[in-house]
Amino acid sequence: MGRGMDFWGIFEKYWPFMALGLWLAYKWWNSRRVVAMLPELRKNGAIFVDVRSAGEFAHGNAPGTINIPLPELGSRLGELPKSVPVVLCCASGTRSAMAKLLLKKNGYPMVHNIGTWSKFLDK
User: Fold this and answer.
1) For the chain, percent of residues with pLDDT exceeding 70
2) Cα atoms in the 13 Å half-sphere on the side-chain side of 38
3) Which of 15-24, 48-57, 63-72 has the lowest average pLDDT?
4) In this structure, what is the dihedral angle of CA atoms 55, 60, 104, 97, given to the nearest 10 degrees?
5) Residue 23: what are its φ and ψ, rounded to 5°?
6) Which strands sit side by side in the sheet containing 65-67, from one edge to the other?
7) Distance (Å, whole) CA 104 – CA 15
8) Which of 29, 53, 93, 94 has the most CB atoms in a 10 Å sphere around its CB?
9) 30-57 in b/e burial notation, b at 16+ Cβ within 10 A?
10) What is the chain's Cα-based Rg?
11) The pTM is what?
């Protein structure tokens, strides 16, 4: 029984760090998956949206991306057709994850989060 108590004691103490590690691992894995899908997404007419601020976008962006800052996305949904894939990016993947949730909630069936905008430069 002592061993089980040790495990649960460690788990209770460190679960936030374990959760963070799992979340970071998922972000890394998902980003790699979307990068691998880029050729097919491009072939299917995907739109690439950078949800960083206009200032961040001006300091560096991937060719072919359009800038719709996250705070403006809800009011600019009409600029994004639902009939083609939408690939989102930002500085770290956090804002683009929020943008993905917003688009999914508004009926966009093909939404992908590539994470950081520089991932577009990898392919």
Assistant:
1) 89
2) 19
3) 15-24
4) -90
5) -65, -45
6) 65-67, 47-50, 86-90, 111-116
7) 29
8) 93
9) bbeebbebbeebeeeebbbbbbbbeebb
10) 18
11) 0.76
